[in-house]
Amino acid sequence: MEYFDTGRYLAGLLFTLGLIFGLWYLLRRYAPGMVRGAPSGEGKSLHVREILQLDPRRRVVVINSGQREHILLLGLTGDILIESRDALPPAPETTDKDAAS
Description:
Layout lengths: L1 H29 L15 E8 L5 E7 L2 E7 L4 E8 L9 H5 L1
Antiparallel strand pairs: 1-2, 2-3, 3-4
């Protein structure tokens, strides 16, 4: 009798998983706008440049969005835009040779 019960449980699990994956397949096939993969690295214009943890509940985040830079205060009670300005040009990278001379 235990084998019969275990078989019923496994059959129910397989049926449920089949329904989930079947629905996922139908959504991807007939409604591709609803289910998308992660965007590729090319063409992204939004980047998190820096995060500063103020305390366990709040942090300041600097985000680059194309030619603009946004400074946000994120917290439990809400998110606040502190400043939005033109992005600074990227600093030239220095190599070990440049630093040594």
